């Protein structure tokens, strides 16, 4: 059953077995694809594995199934930050903050997004269009700038290729006779996600981190009888050397000048990168040094017990905490090892499902 797989996935997550957690959650989703929390939890496991585009897709699916699920927006925000899609991350985090009871973590991440967006907003001065360019007919310029079709190296179910214009990139997926209802297309700040589900056939997924940033609200797609045509609106009029993002060092992109009075713009400069390891170490130090009281102090006390405990005690603590949805914490493995620990909320309180 999906619930049993979900419980096993949580246990694997606690043990830092994130690949196993993804596998178990995938099996649970196959059994019941309408449970939003399964997708949100798999997004978290994918973040731990640095599978950030997969995490964004899972978070989007969780939001589609339950638009009020705040943790799905949190995980989408974190994954987008890792992909340097700061504006998309900020939008997701702001929506999640409006739905969450505890907004503190959302607020901190939103501030970090705003800082990164500010650092990214530097623009290089533009250049005037040259006389030589004026002399070249527009159709010749466009022909020269168009990319040759790029075919995927693997052998996917459908072939795709792309070409570009000064203001947009056009991606074509050659899928003949596919209905519009079978196709899902999602746009991110630097992500294109396409899924084709034809009954009785394996799903086709094209999910890329793009070479450059796009404007999601201006992107569109059209389903034709022999193909799917996707138009990506460029955020900057630069020449894309490929459809997919690459970390290889390249020369500065040349500006693409369209007809009319519009001047070219250049890529944003990023003078500073976030040291995520340093940021995590700083948060852990603050947690260690903070003066806690009430439930926070109690939780810290139990964490310290766990760190110094033997294997049986740790197993007892994890099993009792997971199975009781966070309402029971036992250190006696002989007592809890042979039976399921039932939830026991305090008087006057309602038992809620534990979220990790």
Automatic annotation (TrEMBL):
Superkingdom classification of source? Eukaryota
Name the record gives this protein: Uncharacterized protein
Which species is listed as the source? Trifolium pratense
């Amino acid at each position: 059953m999906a619930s049993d797989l979900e419980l096993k996935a949580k246990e694997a997550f606690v043990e830092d077995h994130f690949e196993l957690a993804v596998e178990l959650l995938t099996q649970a989703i196959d059994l019941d694809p309408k449970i939003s929390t399964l997708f949100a939890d798999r997004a978290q496991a994918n973040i731990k594995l640095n599978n950030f585009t997969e995490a964004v897709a899972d978070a989007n699916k969780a939001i589609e199934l339950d638009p009020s699920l705040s943790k799905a927006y949190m995980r989408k925000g974190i994954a987008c930050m890792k992909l340097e899609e700061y504006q998309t991350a900020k939008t997701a985090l702001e929506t999640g903050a409006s739905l969450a009871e505890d907004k503190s973590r959302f607020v901190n991440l939103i501030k970090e997004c705003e800082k990164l967006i500010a650092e990214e907003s530097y623009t290089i001065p533009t250049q005037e269009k040259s006389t030589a360019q004026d002399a070249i007919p527009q159709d010749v310029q466009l022909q020269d700038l168009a990319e040759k079709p790029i075919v995927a190296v693997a052998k996917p179910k459908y072939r795709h290729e792309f070409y570009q214009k000064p203001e947009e990139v056009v991606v074509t997926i050659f899928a003949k006779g596919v209905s519009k209802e079978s196709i899902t297309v999602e746009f991110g700040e630097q992500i294109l996600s396409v899924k084709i589900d034809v009954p009785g056939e394996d799903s086709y997924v094209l999910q890329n981190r793009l070479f450059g940033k796009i404007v999601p609200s201006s992107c569109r797609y059209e389903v034709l009888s022999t193909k799917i045509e996707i138009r990506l609106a460029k955020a900057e009029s630069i020449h894309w050397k490929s459809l997919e993002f690459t970390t290889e060092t390249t020369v500065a992109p040349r500006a693409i000048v369209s007809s009319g009075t519009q001047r070219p713009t250049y890529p944003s400069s990023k003078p500073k990168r976030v040291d995520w390891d340093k940021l995590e170490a700083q948060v852990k130090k603050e947690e260690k040094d903070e003066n806690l009281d009430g439930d926070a102090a109690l939780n810290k006390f139990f964490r310290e017990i766990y760190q110094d405990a033997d294997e049986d005690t740790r197993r007892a603590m994890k099993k009792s905490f997971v199975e009781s949805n966070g309402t029971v914490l036992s250190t006696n493995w002989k007592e809890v090892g042979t039976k399921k620990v039932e939830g026991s909320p305090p008087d006057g309180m309602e038992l809620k499902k534990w979220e990790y």
